[in-house]
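Notebook B, p. 112. Complex prediction, attempt 2.
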Amino acid sequence: MKDPLVRLRESMLATGYTLDGVRERLGDVAATALSREELVPALRATRDGDPLGTLIRLWWLGVPVEPPPGLPVAELAAAGLLAAADGGQVVAAVHLQPWETGGYVVSDRKVRPGDPALRADHVVGAGGASANLAQLVSRRPVRRALDLGTGCGVQVLHLADRAEEIVATDVNPRALELARLSWALSGIEGVDAREGSLFEPVAGELFDLVVSNPPFVISPRGRFTYRESGLRGDDFCRDLVRQAPRLLNPGGTCQLLANWLHVEGEDWRDRVGGWLAGTGCDGWAVQRDVQDPAEYVELWLRDAAEQGTARYGELYDDWLGWFEAENVTGVGFGWISMHDSGSLDPVVRVEEYGGRVELPVGGYVDEVLAAIGRAHRLTGAELLAARLRLAGGVVEERIGPPGAEDPSTIMLRQTRGLGRTARAGMVEAALAGVCDGDYPLAPLLSAIADLTGESAADLLEKAPDSLRALIAEGFFHISTG
Ligand SMILES: C[S@@+](CC[C@H](N)C(=O)[O-])C[C@H]1O[C@@H](n2cnc3c(N)ncnc32)[C@H](O)[C@@H]1O
């Protein structure tokens, strides 16, 4: 007799309970509403009682249904997935949804306004933040990977095809229970799941890749483990950044999402840069968004469906009062990547970048980290002797008054990757036109000096600094061929 979870997985796949199947069955309007967590259009679209509509109602929408034929009800109830409902119907005890990897994610159901308060050991489902981290994580195959704070286990679904061995930890035992169901229903075997806080379950071990979508929410008290660590302010993310490098094998990478405080009188870049400095790793932190204290409090009160409750005003006031007492002016949301490059002179880059990026970032994040490190470590003389190549997809934009002979501004714009733009002087723009990896920089600069009448000595002295910035931002590569 087959394992009931294997039978469930096979029947979900056979019925078309996949992301594409659900999207097609619901239609654009209901599917898009569902991605905004609005259920009504999907409830209306699945009233027919067809097999796929029934699975969507049961597992995603949380509606009692007649047990679908062949569903091993008793076994799934014993596994904690199903419960009996009135009139011989069954109701899901969890939220079970297909995920973009082709697998399934089991979590607690999201709370909605009017629902009973969240349980303290609530296991949050895969959502926007989970997908963001998955998009950020390096695609390089690795031997050992760690997912710290695995929750419903979703990051493991993404790591499974590129890590030989995966350890997943969580402080919440219920999270590990549901994560194991996610992995079993996704056909993933052999994950080493361990209970415990921060790095305690993996003390003394080394990994090639550490990923974490941590409990980064900053609040006066840790009420919900799924999002708040209970540590003061942004200390959890700070500790993660400071301690993770100790677990990395040479060449290893650590990538996480984080929130950080903006405190009056302190530049947030110094705060986050301070976390990264001294880790021995090259580090890259990107602030993707920043919210003021009130927006932040509203976001997380809404997340726990606390708007409209009797305690809303009290909780809001308490949280805001704490921010005020701590001189907090805002909260930054972002990514942090660290790479153990082995250099004795590690480099840290902290920047704000809210623009659209090419996904998955993980496809080129290793290059970004390498470029930051290389640009920092090249001496002026090495740079002048290097052969540069304009990165693929870089275009030039010239802006100036109509009819003018020369543009007032020249911009280099990346049409791929991070989509950065950089202002270029005439020299950088000229180099962008000729750098194809064939000639070292010094003779190219001399030729540009001859053409423009500038002093070659001046160009050779000044160009390395501006080019170093453009190399760090991925506009030029050092040609190795
Ligand atoms: C935001 S959820 C992330 C879940 C999942 N990894 C994802 O990407 O969606 C954070 C997880 O960290 C766990 N957690 C909270 N405090 C922790 C701690 N001190 N050590 C380890 N994990 C912790 C929570 O139980 C929760 O499952």
